[in-house]
Write a structure and sequence with these properties.
heterodimer, A: 2 domains, five-stranded mixed sheet, B: 264 residues, alpha+beta, Uridine Diphospho-n-acetylenolpyruvylglucosamine Reductase, domain 2, Enolase-like, domain 1, 3 domains, five-stranded antiparallel sheet, 11 helices, globular, binds flavin-adenine dinucleotide, binds FE2/S2 (inorganic) cluster, 2Fe-2S-bd_dom_sf (chain A), Aldehyde_Oxdr_Iron-Sulfur (chain A), oxidoreductase activity, acting on the aldehyde or oxo group of donors (chain A), 2Fe-2S (chain A), metal ion binding (chain A)
């Protein structure tokens, strides 16, 4: 067992968990932050993506015990009070989701993507968006509206 | 996952001691292979020794024409590093094409080559570039390091600390992606450097990454994509699976070699 302390969505949290606990399990089961979804056993679907120290990681392939002192942001931490993050708003406006299962991971991946492209001063083309979403699988939308949502949000972020 | 004990190593000595103390201890870097395997009960180490916090294990430095890449440097760091982009853009591009962004933020060069997946990208790059793999006990030439399917020259308890690469005159990597796994269905890295012309192929060999003598000979004589035309690529010893037959892979090796030379 390890006693871990980290900051999740700006709040400091701690818990005594078995060392094999995945970050996705810690978030969902210990903290009851069930917005982070788990869609596969193979680290391939991206439903579980959260930000750790500012980078998009698969929570299902990260040990909670390795994140002592880390800053974690989940989908629950993105909105500013009642005001949705521009990426959340864009998914809403552009019908970027249907069942919504993949959406938390899509949004966390997309926020990281837009921030990274802006920081590097690179143009985020449609092709680049599709390439960057390689690790996020959606069974419903066919992706077109997700790409539109990201383009829309990128213009507003 | 089966129970395990997590240990964040503070130094190489600490990691070696923890490896020896554990019943079936394993090193952990980005976890993009090991944790994925543990989730599927394909691996059940008693202890995980995390090497990422060890001083000097990550980051890139350049000394003249030589790049030294720490074993725990992530794929994203290699792809974005200015020295790698300047001295060996083909290697930066290779790293930037591994998996997806989340895999690149976590996965490391040391973890990738220690694992030596027959479809992984780095083995092809390091073999073609004639890289040197530096461990806590010795230096190993890439030619001697990659021994076979998921097999390397690493001894029990040996830890990769860095990888050394000399800038080639020209090089390129072209990967034909297997779209579900994102790994290479076939990938070819061509390099023209101090060690002559080297062509390394991943994703195709039954024994993992290999060099192709015929293509190397043809490109040494003439660094042009047309030089590959007269080379016959044998399908003996090549993988065959639902994604592609051995003959299909043999053809891809030639096609990708030509594209790589054009891109170099
Ligand atoms: C969805 C997905 C897509 C992927 N796509 C690709 C792809 O397209 N191309 C590709 O090449 N790879 C791909 N990978 C694999 C990825 O590149 C992994 O990062 C890499 O294979 C392992 O690196 P790691 O740092 O995560 O190692 P870990 O998983 O932590 O460890 C892997 C192995 O290496 C050992 N090890 C780690 N560090 C050291 C060290 N310093 N010295 C000695 N042994 C060590 C560990 O004990 C373990 O046996 C993909 C993975 C996923 C999940
Ligand atoms: S749940 Fe993490 S990648 Fe599928
Ligand atoms: S909206 Fe249903 S999986 Fe993407």
């Amino acid at each position: 067992m390890t006693n871990i302390k980290m900051t999740v969505n700006g709040k400091s949290v701690s818990g005594e968990v078995p060392d094999e606990t995945l970050l996705s399990e810690f978030l969902r089961e210990n903290l009851r932050l069930t917005g982070t979804h788990v869609g596969c056993d193979t680290s391939q679907c991206g439903a579980c993506v959260v930000h750790v120290n500012g980078k998009a990681l698969k929570a299902c392939t990260t040990l909670a015990a390795s994140l002592e002192g880390a800053e974690v942001t989940t989908i629950e931490g993105l909105a500013n009070g009642g005001e949705l993050h521009p990426m959340q708003q864009a998914f809403n406006d552009n019908h970027g989701l249907q069942c919504g299962f993949c959406t938390p991971g899509m949004i966390m991946t997309s926020v990281d993507m837009v921030n990274r492209y802006k920081a590097e001063g690179k143009e985020l083309t449609e092709e680049a968006i599709r390439d960057e979403l390689e690790g996020n699988i959606c069974r419903c939308t066919g992706y077109h509206n997700i790409v539109k949502s990201v383009e829309d949000a990128a213009a507003k972020m | 996952m089966y129970p395990t004990k997590y240990h964040k190593a503070a130094s190489i000595d600490d990691a070696v001691a923890a490896l020896n103390a554990g019943e079936d201890a394993k090193l952990l870097a980005g976890g993009q292979t090991l944790i994925a395997a543990m989730k599927q009960h394909l691996a059940a180490p008693s202890d995980l020794i995390d090497v990422r916090a060890i001083d000097g294990m990550s980051g890139v430095s350049a000394d003249g024409d030589t790049l030294v890449i720490g074993a725990a440097t992530t794929h994203a760091e290699v792809a974005g590093n200015a020295d790698v982009q300047r001295l060996c853009p083909a290697l930066a591009a290779l790293a930037g094409g591994i998996g997806d962004p989340a895999v690149r933020y976590a996965g490391t060069i040391g973890g990738s080559i220690a694992n030596n997946d027959p479809s992984a990208d780095y083995p092809a790059g390091l073999l073609a570039l004639g890289a040197t793999i530096v461990t806590n006990t010795r230096e190993i030439a890439a030619d001697d390091f990659f021994e076979g399917l998921f097999t390397t020259a690493l001894e029990d308890g040996e830890i990769i600390t860095s990888v050394r690469v000399n800038a080639p005159k020209r090089a390129a990597y072209i990967k034909f992606r297997q779209p579900a796994s994102l790994f290479a269905l076939v990938g070819v890295f061509v390099a023209d450097g101090a060690g002559g012309v080297r062509v390394a192929v991943t994703g195709a060999g039954e024994d993992g990454v290999f060099r192709h003598a015929g293509l190397e000979e043809a490109l040494s004589a003439d660094w042009a994509s047309s030089a590959a035309d007269s080379v016959s690529v044998d399908s003996d010893g090549l993988l065959s699976d639902i994604h592609g037959s051995a003959a299909y892979r043999a053809n891809l090796i030639k096609v990708l070699t030509k594209r790589a030379v054009e891109a170099s």
